Structure prediction request, 319 residues.
Amino acid sequence: MSRQLRGYSQLSQRCFYDYHSVLLYSAFKVIRFFLSTPPTLPVLDARLTASPYIFDRAVDYHITSSGVEHSKMPDRVVKLTIVNDFVCPNCCIGQHELLTAITYCKETLHLPISFELEHMPFRLINNAVLPEGTKIDRETFYANRYGKGGFEKFATGITKWAKEKNIPIAFRGVMSQSTLAHRLALKAGQVGGQELQLPILFGIFKANMEDGKDIADIQVLAEIAAGAGMMSKGEVVKFLESDELEKDVDVMCDKARSVGITGVPMIIIDGKWAVSGGQSSDVFVQIFKKLAAAGVSSTGVYSAPSPFPPPVVETAIYA
Prediction:
């Protein structure tokens, strides 16, 4: 069965980046990072009914269940496990480039592949460096971390990319831990599945990267959640002031590090190949073309693609 999901205009007048619209082209699976009792949510296949590059207005999305019958042989399903942190500018870049590649492969190349995306939380900054509850001016934090010259070089690279893509990434505001934001994203998945979790993810990234807001501020997160229709502000505040899902986030972040992930973004493809850093969309397009060329199967058993060149490396992290 199918239904219409209206655009999330309540988040703010400019709640989505262009890559946010692209994200809804793909299917998001519920976050299941070695949890013993993960929430059970439907896997959705989200397809845009409008241009993937849309600013300043709500967008309609056509959501169809993955269980729908197809008259043709099913696409090769590519599972992408995206490990990132809301405070990481390179995660914003990596996600944009990945989703640009997905759109190009689906709309322009018409490759016989579809995607299941799994968002995994990660705390990039160790609590010893930035304890929970601590807030540091963002520019000061980066200058202390990289040195003044290192920060200027880092910021120049990010700003150049942001201008080219018309995505206003900001270095203003404060740096704080993202635990509360990750908890809110998990709660959204439990409350309303991916249809609700998606605008929450979008709102958090926008608030931090574009608006320079503090995503460790409960009121900021409450506004995002209430704008998405997740809960009332009072309910969100009550949830975030509790310890609900805090252990879940801790377990997922700790286990990410235990299996060797020390930096983000990292994209795990079918649990077999890892791509780290903010790679260009061209890298992902070449990967997806190889996967598509390996063939599709009505049984879900796929042939192995030809070897990938760097920066792709084999991994067993999510095998």
User: Anything to note?
Assistant: Residues 1-71 have pLDDT under 50 and may be disordered. Residues 60 and 193 are 18 Å apart (CA to CA). Residues 179-210 form the longest helix (32 residues). DSSP finds nine helices and eleven strands in the chain.
